[in-house]
Amino acid sequence: MIPGMRMYLGLASAILLIALAGCLVPKTQVNEAQAENRVYADQNKAQLVEIDHLKAHLREQEVKLARSEEELAIVQQQADLDRAQLSKYDRAHSDLVEQYRLLARDAKMPPSLGKQMQELSRRHPALRYDPETGMSKLDTDILFDDGDAELKPAAQRMLADFARALRSPEAEGLKIMVVGHTDSQGVGEKPAREKDGGNFQISAARALAVADRLKKEGIGEQRIGVAGLGASQPIASNASPRERLKNRRVEIFVVAPETPVVGWTDSTPSVYRR
User: Fold this and answer.
1) What contacts 209, CB < 8 A, 6 or more positions away?
2) Is 267:261 a contact under the CB 8 Å cutoff?
3) How far apart are CA 116 and CA 165, in angstroms?
4) Spatial distance between the Cα atoms of 152 and 112, rounded to a whole number of angstroms
5) Which residue range(s) make up the domain with 165?
6) Using one digit for the tens of pLDDT, what is the confidence trace for 210-245?
7) What is the pTM of this model?
8) Count of domains observed in the chain
9) Helices (DSSP H) in the chain: which residue ranges?
10) Phi and psi, residue 129, nearest 5°
11) Are 122 and 234 in the same domain?
């Protein structure tokens, strides 16, 4: 029994006994007891109303909890799919890198040029050089503004140093393949979207901007190839801004003339024989 209800019944019984006793209890005491009883009755009603409100709030929270558990299950399922897809991409990327390493194993970059590239990477932190494959990777946020394909001034200076190394006698005959990548996000701002299109277009436009800068710095056009792969080759999950930053990149592959490169007739002559 609710405490207020118990007190209410007790007071009611006391008033009844007082009434039966007649003139033994002064009327003022009876009035006081009645007033006090009304106070307790009002408090009891208020408590009942509060209990109803708490029950309604509890039901509402139970509904919200059930909904959040359903949403969490959906998010978890999507996260599992994303992890499986990323694992698939990782395996494919590792296979491609391994194939490239095998192809480049017998056609390594000249040691003196490799030293120049390592020195460049020390001077320009945004440029990362892999001496085993001869691949250089440039973060596009260093090269371009967000959603843009126009090189920043600092990027132009870095590519000028890069081209200077590739013009050296040790680099003569080496081919340069420039490959652009984006994250999974679309090109956000409307002017950039109208100008450059989607991820494939902007990745190709950025690779072309790098290639054009290398040509202006004296690298022959016949040595340069360009590709835009959009968001199709991620190296991170795209789940956070930091991860997406890893996927926004321009890769520059420096390869020996005899290394097979798709689309280069002199490196894959058997494809073009009649």
Assistant:
1) 143, 144, 149, 150, 151
2) yes
3) 7
4) 29
5) 108-272
6) 999 999 999 999 999 998 988 888 888 888 888 888
7) 0.55
8) 2
9) 3-21, 27-104, 111-123, 140-143, 153-166, 190-196, 199-216, 241-247
10) -115, 130
11) yes
